[in-house]
Amino acid sequence: MNPLTVAICVVACFICYNIINVAVKLLKLGLLSGYAPKSEEPRSLPFVGAAYLAFGNTEVILKKILEVGKTYPPSFQTSWGSFSIFATVIPEQFKVLLLSSKTMDKNEFYDFGRPWVGDGLITAPESIWKLHRKLIQPSFNHMILKSYVNTFSAQSIIMVKKLERHLDGPEFEVDKYLSRCTLDVVCETTMGIKLEAQKNDSCDYAEAVENVLSAMVKRALSPWLYPDFIFYRTQIGKDQQKNIQFLHEFADNIIRKKKKEIRQRTRQREPADNEQDTDSLSTHFETLIDNLIKLSDDNEILTDKAVREQVETMITAGSDTTTLTGSFLMMMLASYPDVQEKVYQELTGIFEGDGGYDDTGELQITPEAMSSMIYMERVIKETMRLFPVVPIIFRKVTDDLVLDQFTLLRGSSVALSIIGAHRSEKYWTDPLKFDPDRFLPERFAEQQPFSYLPFSGGSRSCIGSKYAMMFLKTLTATILWRYVIRQDNVTPVKDLRMKMEFLLRPVIPIAVRIERRTRKHDFA
User: Fold this and answer.
1) What is the 3-state secondary structure (H, E, C) of 424-440?
2) What confidence tens digit (pLDDT) does each residue in 262-293 have?
3) Cβ-contact 480, 329 below 8 angstroms
4) If 0-12 CB within 10 Å is exposed, 13-18 middle and 19+ buried, where does residue 493 land?
5) How far is CA 269 from the centre of its chain?
6) In sequence order, what are the residues at sequence separation of 6 or more whose Cβ sits closer than 8 angstroms to the Cβ of residue 102?
7) What is the CATH topology of the domain spanning 33-516?
8) I want to staple 197 with a disulfide (CB 3.0 to 4.6 A). Which of 20, 50, 135, 180 is the partner?
9) Over the stretch 425-468, which tens digit does the pLDDT of each residue have?
10) What's the pLDDT score for residue 151?
11) Which of 346, 329, 254, 331 is nearest to 293 (CA)?
C-alpha cells in the first residue's frame, strides 16, 4: 500500500471516529442533561454542533462570541465539534465554575501549548498544578517583586530612548517596541539573563517565541491540523518543532549555568556568620529560576524539565499578555488626552516634590512611588475591562456538576466569556465608555462580584497579576514623563476592530505618535 493510500485511510478513520464520538456525546447530552435547546439559542448542526459559528476569520469569531448574551441567552449548553460546551456570561455562574473543585482542569484547547510549556501553571492538570503553584507562589511575594523594580525601570528607559526616533513624526506601531521591552524584562526577572532584545535588531529567542505563538494560533484555527500525525508533517509543524527545540535548549543551558552559580554561592557562604549570610542573601537578585532550582535541589519534586516548563510558561504568559495590555493602554491614553493629562499630573505630584528623578530627568521609580499611582491604576484597570487580553476562559468538567437549571456532564467543557461580562450593560453602566472612575473604591464596591476578571478568578487566577501591574505602572510613568502620546484619528471603542487568537488582539496594529513633553527638564 503506497503512502498516499495510507494517509487517506488514516484521515478517513479519524473523521469516522469523530463522527461517532460526536454522535455519542450528543446522545448523552440529550438523555442525561434534561436540557432542551431553545429556539433563540445557537442552532446545533449534526456532527459540528455550534462550531459553524467560528467559520470565518478571527475578527468574525470574536463578533459572534460577543453576541452571546445579546442575540443568544446569557448561558446555554451546546456542542462544539466533538466537545460538549456550556457557555456563559453570567458572573454568578463564573463564581461557581471558577471556585468549584470539579472545574479546576483546563480543557483540550490548552493542549496546543503543551509541546512548548508542558505542565506549566497554565496547562498543567490540577494534581500537578496544585503542587507547583504552592511551590512557585513565594517567588511572587512582595519583597521579590520589589527587587524587580530596577529592571522594570531600566528596560523602560531603554524603550523610551528607542522611541526618540519617532519624535514629532507620523504615527508608528507600538507593539514592536513593547514586545521587545517586555521580553527583556521577563527574561531578566525569570531567568536572570540580559537578552537585549531591544538593543539588537535581530534576536533569535524573540523570533522563536513569536514563531511558536503564531503556529499555535494557526493550528487552533485549522481543525484539520489537530491530529499530531498530520500537523507534524506540515511545514508549520516542522518549523514549530525546530523553534521549540531551540527554546528548550536555550532554557536548559540557563538552568545548567544557574545551578553552577548557586553551588558556587553556597560554597562561598559562611554558615557560621548568620548575620552576614542574611545580608548577602538580601542583596542578591533572586530570579524565578533561582528559586525554582533551589526547590528542585531541596525536595527533588521539581525536575530540570519542570523548572524549564514553569519558566517558559512565565515568559509566554508574561511577555505577550503584557505587550497587548500595554498597547491597548497607549491607545486609550492617546484617545483620551484629559485622562492622559490627569495621569501625568499625578506623576508630577509624586516625583517633583521630592526630587524623584536624576540629573538627566529620568524617573527614580520605587515601590513606594508606585503605591501612590492611584489614578494610573484605575486607568490600567479600565483598559483591562474593555480589553481583557484573555477574553474567554475554558475549563473541563471532571465530575457531573449541577449549575442552575443545567447539568454539566463529566468530560464536557465550560466557556466563560470574560469580555462578554466586562462589556455587558447588565453589569456596567454605559459599558463601552472609557471611565477610570468606575474603579473608585466606593463605586467598585457596588459592582457585581466576578463581573471583572482580567486575571481570571479563583485559585487558578493569574499568579503574575501584581507583577504585571507594577511593570505597567513603571512603563507608563516612564513614557509619559518624556512624551505626550497622540493619535490622529481616534476610533470609538464600539468601532474598534478586534480579533481573538487565543488572546485579544487589534485587527489593525495600534499606532500612535509622540511629542516631547514640555517641562523645565532637558532630557539627554
Assistant:
1) CCCCCCCCCCCCHHHHC
2) 777 777 765 545 554 444 333 456 788 888 88
3) no
4) middle
5) 39
6) 397, 398, 399, 400, 401
7) Cytochrome p450 (1.10.630)
8) 180
9) 999 999 999 999 999 999 999 999 999 999 999 999 999 999 99
10) 95
11) 254
